[in-house]
Specification:
The protein is mainly α and about 200 residues long. It is about 70% helix and about 0% strand. The chain is built from ten helices and no strands. Helix 1 crosses helix 4, helix 1 packs across helix 6 and helix 7 packs across helix 8. It is elongated.
């Protein structure tokens, strides 16, 4: 049986996720075998099945862990007493930064989501919908209060911003001219400009 942690103290589940993420990003989900994952993680197949049950479970977790992080951060921003413009801008920038911090995870998910079973796909969509609904509630709050324009429905505003977020993996390069925070600031500012009354 694999050790519970490696020489750096990294627990087995994190080692498996790191190995799977790297291999899925490099080779694609469908071209990566369970054997390659466990060899890269330095564990046995038994360890993988103990923690995840299947390769598909690993794929689901690659995205779910990022979505959980983003949901926690969105909830923290939304629950503050800051003015609505500040909360929406912070939320809009944060989803960009956390996506760029986990770019392989996002790219893997959008390329490979169709490999999930209908039930797992439904679970992920429900979690994403919860995130989008909380984000939309910020837009709606600002529209109700007259801070944001009502000219564009809140659903379309959310789709506009997340369309940009979902395409980050197709063009963003860490060694490019813009830092993660600069990209986040530009996209958040674009969103707020679009909502000015």
């Amino acid at each position: 049986m694999a050790k519970a942690t490696d020489g750096n103290g990294t627990p087995v589940p994190q080692r498996l996720l790191a190995a799977a993420t790297r291999l899925f990003a490099e080779q694609g989900y469908d071209r990566t075998s369970v054997q390659e994952i466990v060899e890269a993680a330095g564990v046995t197949k038994g360890a993988l099945y103990h923690y995840f049950g299947s390769k598909e479970d690993l794929l689901q977790e690659v995205y779910a862990r990022v979505l959980r992080l983003q949901q926690e951060r969105l909830d923290a921003v939304a629950d503050t007493d800051a003015p609505i413009e500040r909360r929406l801008r912070d939320a809009a920038a944060d989803v960009v930064v956390t996506t760029l911090d986990n770019l392989d995870d996002a790219a893997i998910f959008f390329r490979s989501m169709h490999h999930l079973s209908p039930e797992k796909n439904r679970q992920v969509r429900l979690e994403r919908r919860r995130y989008h609904e909380r984000f939309r509630a910020l837009v709606e709050e600002g529209q109700r209060d007259g801070v944001f324009s009502r000219a564009t429905p809140a659903d379309l505003v959310v789709d506009y911003h997340f369309g940009s977020v979902h395409h980050l993996s197709t063009w963003y390069r860490p060694n490019g001219p813009l830092s993660r925070q600069e990209v986040a600031d530009h996209l958040a500012d674009l969103l707020l400009r679009a909502l000015r009354p």
